[in-house]
Amino acid sequence: MRPDDAPARLAPLLGPRDLHAPLAWRQGRPISGLAWLADVEAVARQLPAEGPAVNLCGDRYRFSVGLAAALVRGHASLLPPDAREDTLARVCAEHPAAFALVDPGETHGASLALRVAVDADGSRPPLNAMPDWAAIDSARHAASLLTSGSTGTPQPHAKTWGTLVGDVAAAAPRLCQLLGLPSLAGLTLVATVPVQHSYGLESSALLAMLGGAAFEAGRPFYPADIVQALEAVPRPRALVTTPFHLKTLLQSGLPIPPVDLLLSATAPLSPQLAAQAERATGGVMAEIYGSTETGQVALRCPVRSEVWAVLGDIRVQAEPAPDGGERFVFSGDFIPAPTPMADLLELLGDGRFRLLGRANDLVHVAGRRTSLGHLDFHLNSIPGVEDGAFWLPDDVADGVVRTVAFVVAPQLDAAAVIAGLRERIEPVFVPRRVVHVQALPRVGTGKLTRRELREFALAQLAADGSPVRLSHRVPADHPAFAGHFPGRPLLPGALLLAELLEAMRGVPALRARLGEAPTLAAAKFLAPVRPGADLVFDLQPESGAAGGVRFEVRSGDTVAASGRWLPGEGARGAAAGGAP
Q1: pLDDT tens digits for 59-71?
Q2: Which residues cross the membrane (predicted)?
Q3: Among 214, 208, 217, which Cα is nearest to 15's?
Q4: Please, are residues 91 and 79 in contact by the beta-carbon 8 Å criterion?
Q5: Among 37, 247, 411, 427, whose CB has the most other CB atoms within 10 angstroms?
Q6: pLDDT tens by residue, 243-254
Q7: How far apart are CA 578 and CA 200, in angstroms?
Q8: ω into residue 467 within 30 of 0, thus cis?
Q9: CA 266 to CA 355: how far, in whole Å?
């Protein structure tokens, strides 16, 4: 932040551009920069004196108007990961004065005290020139991107207006170079990613507002919608997307209009998919690397090279990590502070590097090392695999890692998937099991979060009668230890069963099988459970929809308890009658 007595450094809402030229396209109709400014001015007058604004607009044009109007009014915009009411209730608890910006007719945002419909479609009389109020203090808090942490509570990543301006200024020249154009003027961006996500924000709304391009107002998701959106805007045009959306589009068989530039982010893009995209569209395929904390920091063209190159004056260097290992830190003028990435890199000098995988998804087998991201990359490169992901269970048996591969591959059996993987990865990493599913639980950006994949995997394995393994740590200060027993504390059997039941309720398929109040048919307590014990719950669903679940509770190599639960009242498909 600048000192209070320092002069403000101002940056305009719109970067250098012809204000009469299109800034946006809505349903095939162009909207000029001057018309956009008129909408911003009108909406800003409607906003309350206190904020911040929670921008929930799905329409990309209305989102951009709401973002700018909030800035003009002096409010930051909070950008949540989704519009679920439980998410918004948590945001509201942190910001009691927050109000929602919504598309007209939308009902979400009821958790907030005030909802403002962004009534803007470019139909107001345009302004005559750039107004004085469109110059924003670079140090002003412009937006906070909220990402869900491990607790599920949205964590804010604050961005000043100067940070956002610098982010786009670093990327725009590289994109011009790829297009062979002196500027981005005339380029229209069609984006499949939500604008509340950092990549969607930077590479659609902000790249148009600050970089000189234009954007299409919608958010096409299905292949036919993407094709229609591309056809509705002039060339040169760019498709801002993800590997998941891109693969779905290419597999649809629909004729794709020519695209001059394709941008991808959020997950590794295979060179095979990149080459297929270039052949199908005639455009240049580019991949963006970055994070919510840093913004976009590097780019590569995967058809031509696996090497990334930093954008602008961004720097990357290795430094010792707190755990004794090595971490890779990015810094630059628009990055507020040097920021480490949660990735393993191979630095090549001059701002170039190779991405080796996520630091927190490494898999070690038989002295060999790889990452889940690397395995996913090769799984999705197999012809016939429409989508796929490796999952690593919470615990390993006998010290051996046994990964499971979940695939959407209607035309391939498990043996064919295994054969494809054997051609691409070392034998020790080939999964013991391939599970075919209808779809993976990807979020709007195409990402597959670790938490969502874990819940999905447990549900799938439980639903087909496969064993489920859960982990649980007994708190060292559990209140039961005070009375059981001084000097040699142990966890009472009833509380151990309660902990087990609570863990089972976290697996949807087991919860559906057993109901809300399952019946304990049998239980044996074979060894004491001490404070701080790391337990493993081995659960085996019995055959048949009305079957129960047998369990073993292990502490290290010792079986502490075993038994059986039967379906209770409310269980789906449960049979009447008591325990046998």
Answers
A1: 999 999 999 999 9
A2: none
A3: 208
A4: no
A5: 37
A6: 889 988 998 999
A7: 55
A8: no
A9: 14
Name the average pLDDT for the chain: 86
| Tokens (6 digits) for 228 | 């229609």
Which of 224-228, 405-409, 432-436 has maximum average pLDDT? Answer: 224-228
Write out the two tokens for 238: 């760019």
- The alpha-helical segments, DSSP class H, found in 406-473 are 414-422, 450-463
The CATH code that applies to domain 10-354 is 3.40.50.12780
Residue 52 is which amino acid?
Answer: P
Is the pLDDT confidence value at 398 over 70? no
Torsion-angle region of residue 128: left (phi > 0), alpha (psi -120 to 50) or beta?
alpha
The 3 state secondary structure assigned to 98-137 is CEEEECCCCCCCCCCCEEEECCCCCCCCCCCCCCHHHEEE
Torsion sign over Cα 244, 245, 246, 249: positive
Q: Is 71 left (phi over 0), alpha (psi -120 to 50) or beta?
A: alpha
- CATH code of the domain occupying 362-461: 3.30.300.30
Tokens in use for 375? Answer: 């395995």
Looking at domain 465-569, which CATH architecture does it have? Roll (3.10)
Considering only CA atoms, which of 35, 20, 14, 1 is closest in space to residue 133? 14
- Count of other CB atoms within 10 angstroms of residue 578: 7
- Among 202, 186, 207, 27, which Cα is nearest to 121's? 27
Per domain, the residue ranges of the chain are 10-354, 362-461, 465-569
Residue 299, helix vs strand vs coil: strand
